[in-house]
Amino acid sequence: MKPFGVNSMPDKRILITGGAGFIGSHLAEDLVKTGYSVKIVDDFSTGNVNNILELFNYKNFKMLREALLTKNFWLKPPPTLT
Ligand SMILES: NC(=O)c1ccc[n+]([C@@H]2O[C@H](COP(=O)([O-])OP(=O)(O)OC[C@H]3O[C@@H](n4cnc5c(N)ncnc54)[C@H](O)[C@@H]3O)[C@@H](O)[C@H]2O)c1
Questions:
Q1: Would you say 41 and 64 are in contact if contact means Cβ atoms under 8 Å apart?
Q2: pLDDT tens by residue, 9-48
Q3: Model's pTM, two decimal places?
Q4: Which domains does the chain have, with CATH numbers?
Q5: DSSP code of 70?
């Protein structure tokens, strides 16, 4: 998969919201396996850790368990992508 249809730049860092859900986990899987550094943010309200279990084997994958819409989330520094 070549994301965004242009020259792939695997050194890019990507943040996926809802990354433990159906769409997000598939997107994360493709991007991780392409070589991008991927971090997902998910509160697991409907997502499932089983969707992303395999990705924990990749060092270019990180997960942050957090709800995006809480005031607390936005008051904190943005999640680092490294
Ligand atoms: N096998 C299949 O074909 C299949 C399976 C599941 C779903 N679907 C379809 O996929 C679509 C849904 O997929 P989706 O990925 O949009 O939904 P989803 O619920 O799977 O993913 C949304 C993710 O966002 C997270 N989330 C929600 N609010 C959040 C917040 N405030 N902060 C942080 N995280 C938050 C949830 O925990 C979840 O992981 C539907 O159309 C459904 O019918 C298909």
A1: yes
A2: 667 899 999 999 999 999 999 999 999 999 999 999 999 9
A3: 0.83
A4: 12-66 (3.40.50.720)
A5: S
| SS3 category, 35 | coil
Ligand 1 pocket check: which of 44, 46, 55, 72 to mutate, most ligand atoms within 8 Å of Cβ? 46
Q: How far is the CA of 1 from the centre of ligand 1 (A)?
A: 22
Contact 39, 63 (CB under 8 A): yes
Q: What separation in Å is there between the alpha carbon of 15 and the centre of ligand 1?
A: 16
Can you tell me whether residue 61 is helix, strand or coil?
strand
Pocket of ligand 1 (CB under 6 A): 18, 20-24, 41-47, 67-69
Q: What would the pLDDT profile of 65-75 be if each residue is shown by its tens digit?
A: 999 887 666 66
DSSP 33: H
42: how many CB neighbours lie within 10 A of its CB? 26
